[in-house]
Amino acid sequence: MSQFMLGKTISLDSSTLAKLSFDYFSNNQNKRDSARDIIKYFIDNALYLLITWHHIEELLQIEDNNKVMDRLNFLENFPVVVWPTSYDKNDNPGSIIDVLTLEVNTILETPSLTRLDVINNVKEKLFIYGTGKELVESHREQWLFMRPLLTDQCKRRITIASIDHSEIHDKKTKLSDIKLGKLRSPDDAHHICSSLAKRLSDEMKVRGDHRMINHDQVALDFMDSTFSDGLAIYQSDKNPCDAILDHFKIDKNILRDNMTISEITQLSVINEKLKIVLG
User: Fold this and answer.
1) Quick one: which of 54, 17, 59, 61 has its CA closest to 150?
2) Which pLDDT score, from 0 to 100, does residue 1 have?
3) DSSP H or E stretch at residue 28
4) Mean pLDDT, the chain, as a whole number?
């Protein structure tokens, strides 16, 4: 499909795609025309729609069967779509994990590559080109079968993202500050977690995903889980700071005292992604 390589790839977020699909099949002529104009604009300007697994998950996760079918049918109208290859070759559009897997394996295969070399190398192997109809029709039955699972996964992602966007801790606190601190008693820690649950709920109502409805319970469950996980720290014979880092599987030898909680958290997330990628 080399004839597709001259265009420019554009990614629209899933909420925009959902709205366009709603307008495309609307009873309102103006809305229908507007949505069709978008597709015409893509065609006239040689724009290719980028579709990832994350798009598919979010487009399928609603309970209305008719809207789901409209969303899939809408995608079929794009003459050229682009999707990341799945690293395990399962034929579905890839996700960010597939991109990361390609990057990591490229580096492991040739450690001497520069950052730009890695980008160019991965880019050559990353994308698959086809028509919207080819993509949807070859996966429609499988995607519809997976809808219940995708709905649960989407709810979990909404919860995680809403918690992540909240600001109940001072993320600028440095590692050096933690080293100077003292470990609270389990009773004090439990009391603080209970207080933070209320703050977390309030934060999620403001900063979290608008699709969340059970903020209080999510916050309570999260802080209860945090407290339960943290009890392992009290069973360690190491100093509190090292015990915390060990608990979250962070190698203290790669840390600097001036690193913030936010930076250490990001490092922990990267470590977890690498574990998934490397198996």
Assistant:
1) 61
2) 42
3) none
4) 88
Q: HEC profile for 205-253?
A: HHHCCCCCCCHHHHHHHHHHHHHHHHHHHHCCCCCHHHHHHHHCCCCHH
SS3 63: coil
Q: Is residue 133 classed exposed, middle or buried when 0-12, 13-18 and 19+ CB atoms within 10 A define those classes?
A: middle
**Could you tell me the two tokens for 68?**
């789901």
Beta strands 47-50; 81-84: pairing state? parallel
Supply the pTM of this predicted model.
0.74
Q: Looking at residues 73-83, what average pLDDT do you find? A: 96
Mean pLDDT calculated for residue range 227-253: 81
> Could you tell me if 57 and 153 are in contact, meaning their C-beta atoms sit under 8 angstroms apart?
yes
Domain boundaries along the sequence of the chain: 2-99+127-161, 168-278
Span 18-40, pLDDT tens digits? 999 999 999 999 999 999 999 99
**Cα–Cα distances in Å, from 55 out to 74, 127, 155, 166?**
13, 15, 14, 24
pLDDT of amino acid 161 = 82
Q: At 83, is the secondary structure helix, strand, or coil? A: strand
Residues 100 and 63: their CA atoms lie apart, in Å, by 31
pLDDT of 78 reads 96
Q: What single-letter amino acid sits at 41?
A: Y
pLDDT for residue 47: 94
The closest of 126, 25, 12 to 70, measured between CA atoms, is 25
